[in-house]
TrEMBL record:
This is Cysteine--tRNA ligase. It comes from freshwater metagenome. One of its GO terms (cellular component) is cytosol. The keyword Protein biosynthesis applies. Belongs to the class-I aminoacyl-tRNA synthetase family. It is an enzyme of class 6 (ligase). Its EC number is 6.1.1.16.
Amino acid sequence: MRLFDTYSKSLVDLPAKPGPVRMYFCGPTVYARAHVGNARPFVIGMWLRAWLRETGYQALLVHNITDVNDKIYDAAPGASAELAARATQWYLDDTAGFGLGMPDHMPKVTEMVPEIVSFIEELVEKGYAYPVGGDVYFRVAKFSEYGRLSGQRPDQVEEQEPNALKEDPRDFALWKGTKLGEDTSWPSPWGDGRPGWHIECSAMAEELLGESFEIHGGGLDLVFPHHENELAQSRALGHGFAGIWAHNGMLRFTGEKMSKSLGNVLTIHEALETWGQETLLLFFLSGHWRKPIDFSTETLEQAAARAETFRNALRLEDSGDETGWEAFASALDDDFDTPRALAVLHEWASARKLGLLRRGLTVFSLNSLGDSAEAPAEIAALAEARLAARAAKDFGEADRLRDEIAAAGWELRDEAGGYSLVPKR
């Protein structure tokens, strides 16, 4: 298998099977309910892990949570820890709604501060970082390869974090001394404070995956400065760090009904409530992971139609033809080309190659498209009540009714325009 690497600007082969293939995908900064665009790196990481395991790799996925940050302080002055804990649970609950399982490790910054402090101490000891005024900064000028990942020219890098005490305007913070109004801090050799944004990922990735690992993922918006700074910190210490930098394209909100400027961008929770797991997964499947993908009513309706196509096919009699898996595997092994794999799935549906279709859908946790069941009247009534609660935007009551249905042994799966009820196995 091979993936496109942002650093080398080329396709790079993964190690021979069984690997291992160790992956670190940057996660959210938790201060609000995550919008649906934040789901793309999570979904891609989980799918990639599933495919690697399906094909015989030992795959491990780490997906971090940034639970101390300026944005969190700004969103909840004096109560940042409480907001971070609540928003972390929102993210866990919302991403669980995709039915993909969870990453192998989901470290929080607040749980790994000692490891981060040790990392900074080593950078200071080797002259790549310096303390000033309670903060610690990385010396950009000392790292000769700075800018290679993002294509930034070192002499054109603008100041990232203004501070008149810095040696060089380009230097970025590794440790931030506690400021007025910040309600969380940890001890360090430079005084009480907390980690800067970039150092946390270098430290957590290496703590869980080692000084060198195979894949670092995240959104294209993180290439600079976040990933450029991660690379500098780790390579400055002589660590190999990531072998492949896999940056996913951004989700674009399009159409009059959905735009950031109008303030009506959907959260993951709302998107799942509105469109359902299967439609959203098929939407993500339709776009190549490296390319932007348009999120609109029209594109979601197209995904919902695909879901119905597969449901209808899976109700037919199987042709018994099991040939053709190689075309599906070839698509995914070649830069994880999910649109090409999706086209193969449609070919199998048309040819009633239902064994292959079920196997392929399972890779993306879409095997539920073949489920059908007749729920008891009382369960159906609860589902209808939940549908009404959703329409009234009473999501608390909708969640309560979903839990009641689950407690009765049924799983409620949202679909465009309705829902399905599937008995738990």
